[in-house]
From TrEMBL:
Organism of this sequence: Candidatus Electrothrix marina
Record has Protein biosynthesis as a keyword: no
Residue spans crossing the bilayer: 246-266, 278-302, 314-335, 341-361
GO terms under biological process: polysaccharide biosynthetic process
Identification of the protein by name: Glycosyltransferase involved in cell wall bisynthesis
Predominant location: membrane
CDD domains named among the record's database cross-references: AdoMet_MTases (cd02440), DPM_DPG-synthase_like (cd04179)
Amino acid sequence: MDSEKYYKLSVIIPIYNEEKTLNRVIDAVLAIDLPLAKEIIIVDDASTDGTQKLIEQLPDEGVVKIFHKKNQGKGAALRSGFAKATGDIVLIQDADLEYDPAEYPKLLKPILDGRADVVYGSRFIGSDAHRVLYFWHMVGNRFLTLLSNTCSNLNLTDMETCYKVFKKDVLDRIKLEENRFGIEPEMTAKIARLVQDQELAVYEVGISYSGRTYSEGKKIGIKDAFRAAWCIWKYNSTTTAKIIKYFTHGSIVALFQFIFMVLLVRGANLCTAYELNVANILSIEGALLIAFFLHSTLTWHVKFTSINEVVKSLFEFHLVTSVSILTRIGSFYFLNFLGLHYIPNLTIGVVAAILINYFGYEKIVFNRDRIKQEPFMEPILRKMRIRRVLNEIKKKPECALLDVGCGFNHAFLSAVEPYIGSGTGIDFKVPEKTSAKITTVQTRLDKKLPFKDNTFDTATMLAVLEHLDHPLEITREIARVIKPGGKLILTVPGKKAKPVLEFLSFKLGIVNRAEIEDHKKYYDLEELRDIVQQVDTLGIIHHRHFQLGMNNFCVIQKQ
């Protein structure tokens, strides 16, 4: 890729209490001659010395100034800077001058040449000058880089380096979360996932390094090293990382089951044969719950959005685990019957169980495409509505039925198909098709219905009225297309249902949130009667509540 295709470099400078070096680092960045325009984005993380005043005195041209009211850390400062960056390439520059802006041409070259998407500046390769400082800092950096490489499957020499350069579109593909120095391993972990999934090219170049002593203002410490190790474990999600975590977490779970068993036997004094079996079952279940937590949060990085997702995945987790246990028992019995020695027999069973669990969790339990399915209560509520209306449909067998707002899968029409002569479903999201009895028509419910007068014997409108901006107009249209003596059967949530449905959807996630957010109105009997009375040919002949008084069931007849 040509350098002409890149137009601007955004230099992000997170800063906290660096009044001694701020002006020098700004001057050094401005002095570099590059084939790109430059914008400097300074993010002050609530400095307590004179840094803020110095930033305010800087010229506004080419410099974006961001001030945090509260100290949040380097990661938060970088996120604020990234959000404001308008360049094609983004480079991170610390404000302490440990890293020399004169290195920019070297750092940018792999991207400008079209070879790289991301470039790291390494303090541990190359022949440039390095200040000799702390041995154990060097050991810590190399250890964290080794740990990161083990999980990310990259071969970096300096994961913790400040100098990281990205194409802007690469940064736009990752969501960063860490507030403090944990941002370095987090960025590397998420870049590694893009390398695996999208074949990003990452390069390293050797850089000089003029480290500071603590008396000169160095801020990173041992606490940050432990946090970095945790972030390496937390954020890496490559296949390599998942396999390592799978076995590590499995070992932790086995240890916890042992601990649970000892506590139950000795602490709760469960000593009889029956009690020991109970203790074993309880310890297994406790261990499985810990395994589910570890694997969902750290191995597969699933972020559940509702209790329904958790319950469904937990059930599938138990199912997959049960299949692996039964496979292990069955294979041992079968191979033992064939005369295989117990050691290879046992080995085969263990390997089979490990593979079944891993691929079951990967492809079924924690597969995000499978998790995002219909909320738990939706099919239950739908069946209750259908059951309520079905008895009314059976009173006029072989009728011509119109289902208004039939939904994408026209579930009601499918349920009543054996009892009707023909069924037509209309909805703005239903695909148009025709079968022996069922026809679906894609149309919006805010205009004249595409049917002749007096076409249908019966019309149904189940959980639709509450979504309509103009309920009176659609009611008039339904009255037009049903025959004299024909019926409109509708269900609509009452006013009592509003707080309940909002709790079930917004808090528990077991009812479709988008559907509840789309509700325009909740109806009581008087409001339904008011609509019907404005249509001369219609009258309510039956009304009752169902679903614990929260839903209206109404039968309306055309004169």
